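Lay summary. Proteins are chains of building blocks that fold into shapes, and those shapes determine what they do. In this project we predict the shape from the chain. Here is one chain we studied, written as its sequence of building blocks.
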Amino acid sequence: MQRLLPVGLIAVLALLLVACEPQQSLFPLATDDDKVFDKQLLGEWKIWSGTEFKPDEKPGLITFSAVPDDAYVYDVQIPGFGKGTLTSRARLVKLGDSMFIDFEAPDLDQFPNVPYPILESYVFGRLSLSQDQARIDFLNDEWVQNNIKAGKLPLAFVPTQNPVLSASTAELRKFALEHAEDHEAFSEIYSLMRENQAEKR
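And here is the predicted shape, written in a compact code that computers can read:
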């Protein structure tokens, strides 16, 4: 029996940074009706897991670029994945007073040695953004699993060893809006900083 490997972009980044994994979903948080784009996110960022910048640890790199044929989509690139650069796309989602970012599954066509069939998935988190710093609080997979065990998760999921959410986009958006300020649910934190700011730390 072949094993299906869910792959979200930040889940791959988590492997590179030796961090925990954000919760993955079969369906996106974003829809084509989401018309949000913030130019502050464009460019190259240092990225690390957690809130504290550690100058003695080498952070990862992530780059956001505009997509010429879609004014509301970001092209996302993460260098250093094997010998290549991992690419994906992302959209911003405004729900109530909170901003979220939704990442598509990465393009793995240039990495033919991935040993398992890929089940495309998404990861999303709450986004805080200023000129030189940003933070993404992803939905935490451990929180999801604990709520599954307790019978309290309000979202449908695939009951595998590492559960994947199977709730619809509409259900995900309702959940994200209701839990936007839930710091236990959205507790898988990644911090981003412009390189010139990181050098000052």
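What the prediction tells us: The first strand starts at residue 5 and ends at 7.
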